[in-house]
Amino acid sequence: MEQPSAAEIIANLASQIDHHAISRFNICRSDIWDGAVRGFKRGTFSEKDLFVKFSDDGGRLEEGIDTGGPKREFLSLLMKRLSQRPIFDGPTDSRYLVYNSAAVRENEYSLAGKMISVSIVHGGPGPNFLSKDLVSYISGQSSFNSSVEDIKELSYRDIVIFQILNASSLENLQDQMLKNSTMLQTAGCFRNVTSVQEKHSVVREYLRWYIIERNHSAIERFKEGLNCLHFLTALQQHPAVMAPLLCHLDKQLSAMDIEHLFKPDLSEAGTNKRNQEEKTISFWADYLLDCEENSSGATLEDILMFATGVPSIPPAGLEPLPQLQFLVDSKFPMANTCANILKLINSWVSLNQKLKESC
């Protein structure tokens, strides 16, 4: 039987959202986390539409109704901020949960899981930073491929692991095992080794304990939050499709991706307006290439964020479909992140400079 796509699974999860009510979030960009926590902990938060209001640094509410853009921007900024929380450790693109007593008291593990599930199901980005081994464990899979490099801080523990890995003989390995028996017994991987090749299984078992098993209670709380909107259930039912949404993706946006994503709203063929619009499209395509080649002051992610409120294409896709429109009398490009519309100006020099400034 053919697997449903991630977008189809998310659309099914999103059907639970009550569009006749809202959960409101009052957010200041200088402290995304504080506003997010207040919103998610509010007693009235439930499976409703999200309504996000940003306030500027002066405390004035920005004008405009949230029909998607502010919500996507908020969720994008929240996922970035979440990766920096002390409940996570490890490389920036492969982070795992660690036990933190203050976070337990604040129920932060469950909250983090809820933030991720809500972001994905409501059309925002995935976290893009979780360890594949952590996600594999959460989704009920058995694979484990972490290495010593996934343990962030070089300490006595890491030196011991390197010494075990570098043991060149059975005698040397046995000596290292005995010298560090307390640490290995704590992890449940101390034993009598009979081959130098067993060093690899000892290290793998230790790393699995260090990353997964010693943090079991934190992971269970995280899973509780992740099942908001039944996301965890979908992850466990379709791990091959859903697990990549939580992990770092090596694929970068390309100029072609953005060019294909935004469909131009063109005037009637043969008119002067149409001729100018087609010329502007060529400027736009060249500008995207400049961004891809790092010869512009902006990145392709900046362009997408400016136009849609997200720096990458969300797992659920973008709705409505992104569109290019054309300005005649404006000196600046404009964007409507709620409608996913980018409005371009018709001068190459101005387009290049002003898009860089706007992004």
UniProtKB/TrEMBL annotation:
Active site annotation, chain numbering: C338 (glycyl thioester intermediate)
Keywords from the UniProt entry: Transferase, Ubl conjugation pathway
Pfam families (alphabetical): HECT
Gene3D superfamilies: Hect, E3 ligase catalytic domain (3.30.2410.10), Hect, E3 ligase catalytic domains (3.90.1750.10)
Gene Ontology molecular functions: ubiquitin-protein transferase activity
Location of the HECT domain: 47-344
InterPro entries: HECT_dom (IPR000569), Hect_E3_ubiquitin_ligase (IPR035983)
Name of the protein this chain belongs to: G2/M phase-specific E3 ubiquitin-protein ligase
Gene source species: Oryzias melastigma (Marine medaka)
